């Protein structure tokens, strides 16, 4: 019976839904993480009687159709790029983006990746890098004898060096933004890369038109709401159970039909 296959598509869809929700919950405390939301579409229909078809020579027409759907399919696991809560860390290397934009990171293969995770560190040469040692772009190197590091809201990085009365300007952090930021591809490690869907990156200084500003000593939390995810998980579980109930009911109907033939 068709209902077996239709209900199976529903179970498969809700299984994937639970996987997406579980990933959101697992990354509840991941800095700069952006939650995903699964989206579905119905599958093709078999039209047994089309609306508008003629029923007589007097131009009478069928007011509504008779069609049977074949189930559901997953069309996207859209990533929601809404702002996460900023939390104070008091770390001078930590920086959060308040508003639009991504930090640029140079990958080992030369590609540029993008992140909202501003928990930066210094490598052996004083470069500002991610936890995996990838330098931010443009590269900024902090002198070994620097006693304080300051990152302004507009991205200027300055250091206090012994023997100098004025802070030394080390460089300028730039942000990147995209026409369709939900089209970015996540590659793990809190990093994204551009795709044809996201469009090319537009870079600029923080606090300039279209870009957010930087907050030193803060980090952006994941934009995951635990209550929302648990509610979605319960709804997905119930939908899965109802599809499983359809399969059970269809099986019982087939058993009844088989019994009639045996009789």
Descriptive key words:
flagellum; alpha+beta; single chain; five-stranded antiparallel β-sheet; 263 residues; Flg_bb/hook_C_dom; cell projection; 2 domains; 2 helices; Flagellar_FlgE/F/G
Chain-averaged pLDDT: 93
Helix-strand sequence? HEEEEEEEEEEEEEEEEEEEEH
Could you give the distance between the termini? 21 Å
Quote the beta fraction: 25-35%
Q: What is the strand tally?
A: 20
Secondary structure tally, helices:
2
Q: Can you tell me the residue ranges where pLDDT is under 50 for at least 5 consecutive residues? A: none
The number of domains is 2
Overall geometry comes to: elongated
Alpha carbon gyration radius: 27 Å
Describe the SSE topology.
Blueprint: H1 2-26, E1 36-42, E2 45-49, E3 66-69, E4 72-79, E5 86-88, E6 95-98, E7 102-106, E8 112-115, E9 121-122, E10 128-129, E11 136-137, E12 148-151, E13 156-160, E14 168-172, E15 175-177, E16 185-188, E17 191-193, E18 202-204, E19 213-216, E20 218-220, H2 226-262
Antiparallel strand pairs: 1-4, 2-3, 5-20, 6-19, 7-8, 7-11, 7-15, 9-10, 12-13, 13-14, 15-18, 16-17
Helix pairs in contact: 1-2
How would you explain this protein's 3D organization?
- The chain has 263 residues and is an alpha+beta fold.
- It has 2 domains: 2-51 and 65-81 and 224-262, no CATH class; 86-220, no CATH class.
- It has helices at 2-26, 226-262; strands at 36-42, 45-49, 66-69, 72-79, 86-88, 95-98, 102-106, 112-115, 121-122, 128-129, 136-137, 148-151, 156-160, 168-172, 175-177, 185-188, 191-193, 202-204, 213-216, 218-220.
- Strands 7, 8, 11, 15 and 18 form a 5-stranded antiparallel β-sheet that branches. The protein has a 3-stranded antiparallel β-sheet with strand order 12-13-14, with no helix packed on it. Strands 1-4 form a two-stranded antiparallel sheet.
- Strand 13 and strand 14 form a beta hairpin.
- Helix 1 (2-26) runs antiparallel to helix 2.
- InterPro entries: Flag_bb_rod_N, Flagellar_basal_body_rod_CS, Flagellar_FlgE/F/G, Flg_bb/hook_C_dom, FlgE/F/G-like, FlgG_G_neg, LlgE_F_G-like_D1.
